[in-house]
Each structure stands twice: as C-alpha cells, then as structure tokens.
Amino acid sequence: MTLVKWTPSPISIFDEMNHMVRNVFNDDWDLPVYRDSIWNPAVDVKENGKSFILTADIPGLTKKDVKINITNRVLNLNGERKEEKEKEDGKFYYRERHIGSFSRSFQLPETVNEDGIQAS
Hints:
Blueprint: H1 10-24, E1 43-47, E2 52-56, E3 66-71, E4 74-81, E5 100-107
Antiparallel strand pairs: 1-2, 3-4, 4-5
C-alpha cells in the first residue's frame, strides 16, 4: 500500500461539508451558495484620448454602497453587497451573486489630474 499526501484546499473542504449537510437534510439541490466572502467585481479601464473611464460590474448597488478614494495616486474602489432578507414566500436554493465586501485598487498614471476625477 502506498501512502499519498493529501492537502485539501479550504474551499474543497467547505464544499464537501456543504454536500454532507445537504444529504442529511435530503436537499435535492446540491449547488454552491456564496455568502460573506470577499469578491472582486469585474472592471474595465479605458482611455479615450483625454480621460480614463473605469466601469465596474456591481449591479444592485447604490452610490451609498460604493466608496471611491485616492491615496498616493492609487484609486481605491470599495463597497459591500448586503444580504437580501428572505421573504416568507420562499427560500434560496441556489445563489451565485456574491454577498459581502469588495475592494479594487488601480495605480493612476502621472498624467491624471486627481482633482478632475468624477464618479457617476
């Protein structure tokens, strides 16, 4: 018999535990649920000749959910998607939209005028 070292990742352990719990409760939906995790929304940065435009995929968030600041020529985009309260008309069996905080940082070129930065 040969022994093989096994080093599981924390995520695979969580998935296995999730699978076992669902089996105990006879849950037919063996699908992942993402909760309380740090996530990185997709971001596009483009230059149109006289300005840079940063577009982030953060649907469902309002302006008050997102914070933008600049420190030492680094633009920081931070926010949080809060968990929706479940209504009495049902429960989630499958959730792919991440819940929790996110943070993205971008080094600004020397040519960027920090005072001219706008958010919309």
